[in-house]
Every structure is written in structure tokens, then in C-alpha cells.
Design goal:
The protein is mainly alpha-helical and about 450 residues long. Helices cover about 65% and strands about 5% of the residues. It is found in: Cell membrane; Membrane.
Length: about 450
Amino acid sequence: MQRLDKKSRGKYAEEILDFLRNENIPTFRKTFLDLHPMDQATIFTVLDLNERALLYHYISAGEFSSIFQELDYEVKLMILNELHEAYAADMLNEMDADDAASFLAKLPENTRENLLLSMDDTEEAEVRELMTYPEETAGSIMTKDYIQIKASFTTREVLEYLQKEGPSAETIYYLYVVNENEQLAGVLSLRDLITHEPSELVEKIMSTRLATVTDSDDQEEVARMIQHYDLLALPVLTKMGKLVGIITVDDAIDVIEEETTEDVGEFSAVRGATDEDVTAFQAAKKRAPWIVLLMFLGMITASTIEQFEETLEAIVLLAVFIPLIMDSAGNTGTQSLAVIVRGLATGSLDKKGVAKTLWREFKTGMMIGLASAIAIVILIYFLYGNTMLAVVVAVSIFLSLSLATVIGAIFPLIINKLKLDPAIASGPFITTINDILGLLIYFTIATSLLHYL
């Protein structure tokens, strides 16, 4: 299977498209089908309606299924309307069951049912089973295309079985050994299979130290486990230990990407609006509530300043440093927020301990605050020649940054304890809270020392 680099993809694509447009079918099929499915999908997306119709005619439903799996949902939906019902059913039969289930679950009920009823009975049953699992669980992303063997098999028998069943499995690197009750008893790797004598029994060489998940486990936890143990696949069991599917590393990567995108959306208060296909209206609809909420929080900031109006009237120069105090505290808190959210997402926070992490963030804030305070003292002294003003701003910066790191760290921890996504403690929200805190510290110190200024 050939893979194209970015530089040669465009030129090579034009050559393949010329074969299709000129209906040089043998050459087109040979060159096009030799490509990786992702490159095939890239080429497919530049075809117009007539060219796509030609491709459907010259590429079988089974061959097209690997291309279809690589397309975005919106493109898949458009393509589905172009396909003959029998062709679409054959394509879905050839797709990985988990990918087919993921796509069909998003379709309108009538369309979904018509497609399911036109599929093969076995494939339909597998897809329907996968669709019964709640979203974002291990069951919803697992595949049922795996190799299952018995402990009484010899390695020779397993190899013969692989030759027959291997082509239909999503992966054959791990072979799953089950007992008479369909419960997982062990795993045999392909390496162990081919490095032992043909007469060796599976039960003698299989591994019984297993990493497993249940079908109700959260998909993010599953992806984290695959990443932690460097696995190519992970078996999925019921609560009774029955093997019902596997989750492969490519699905884990998709989950990590999906969860990361979701966290970035939460973190920046743009959840659901990060997709490039989202229209301006849809993006505004999703982002506006956060902006309005933050606007009202900003009113608290304004009222905080108003409470110290007399202090500002007495020393107008204090107003110059308001943006500096607010920005420094907000930015420092957001940094701590990012550290904690990442720690919770990767599981590293559990290993280090919450108290230790909070203490580290507080010390970090103190060090950053001290460095900033020294810099601001020097700057204010040379610009304004007011030593006491420099001290007020410097102490305010030091205290604000020290506390901002703690606030940025504590908020996501509290939200996580409430069983919510810690990323919803968004950057703008933490920034606003720390703005208010920084202003309170600044004006309290300035008011206390007003007669020295």
C-alpha cells in the first residue's frame, strides 16, 4: 500500500484523476487502489458529481468502504444520498462495525432503519448491538472484529484458523483466549504464536496478566489505558467477564483527539464552536452565552473599582497600573488551570498527589510574583520616582500572582470532585475571578497606605 507525502500528493492525484476522466479503468484501479485509504479519500473529495458517479461504477462497495470511513460526517451524509441503496448496504457491510455504528447513530431514524434492514443479518446485529451502548463509553467505540480462540488449540491449529478468519479481523496482533462461558481467560500475541513449536498448546504460552476494561467504562479512561500500557488493542468485557469486543489503538487516538478538542473548547469557552465546518451563526450561538456571562462578571470588576473611587481620585496614577495587575493575575491563574487540567486528563496528578501539586503551584506563583515585583519596583522608580507607589504595586503583584496560581489550580479540582469535566473551569472564567482578586488586593493596600503616597 503506497503512501503519498504532501508534496507529491497533488501531482499524483491529477494523474489518477486523468485515468478516471479518460475512463482508463485498469490503470486507474491499479494506481488508485494501491494508495492508502486516507490518500484515496483526499483524492475523492476533489471529484465533482459526475466523476464520483464514475468512481462508484468502477470501484466496488467493499473497496469504497475504506474510503468512506476516512471522510468527515457531513461529506459522508452527502455521499450517502448519491449511492444506490444496494451499494450503500454492501459498503456498510464491509465497514468496521464500530465505524458503521458511529455513522448510522447520527442519521435520522427512518434513514438509519432502512439502511440497517438492507444490511446482512450478521452485520446488522453487530451494528445494532454497538448502538445500544451509551455515547462515550468503551462499548460504543469497540469493534467486534477480533480473533477468538480456545486454550486447547495448538499453535498449528491457531495458524490454520488465522488463515481462514484473519482477513475479516480488524487486528490479529492479539488473539483472545476464552473459556466455555465466553469469558476471557488469556491473550496470545502474534509474536508468541510464531515463535513456539507447532505442537505447543495455547494455554501453555498465553498471557493471563491482562489489561481489560468493561463495556461501561468511559472512553477517555480507555484511551488513557491504551496509551499508558502502549497497547495495540484492549479487550472489552461485561461485568461478568464475558468478552464482547476490543478497542484498537486507532480508535484510542480518535478519542484522545476528540477529548482534547473538547477540553480546548471548554478551556477557551468555545465548546462546540471549534469545528471548521461550523457556520458563523452556529459559532456565535455557542460562544455568545459565555461572553455574556463574562460580561456580567466584568461588571463585578467594574463595581470593585468603583468601591475605591476615593482612592483613585486621591492618587490618579494608581489607575495606570490596573491593567497590569489584572492581566498578570489572570494570566498566571490560567497557566495553573492548564497545568491542573492536563494533570487530571493524563492521570499524572493522581500519582503526584493533589496537596503536593497545589503546594508546588503556590511556590511557583510566589517565585513568579517575586520576580515580577522586583522588575516593577525598578520600572516605577525610574519612570515616576515614587518609591511608595512602587512598593504598593510590587506587593500587590506578589500577593495577586501567589494566590492566582492557587485559585487557578483549585477550581478545576473542585469541579472534578463534582464529577464534571474540569476543563469547564474555562480560562476566561478563571481570568475574571483573578482580575477581581487582584484589584481587591491592589486597592486595599493602596487605601491602607494612601497617606504615604
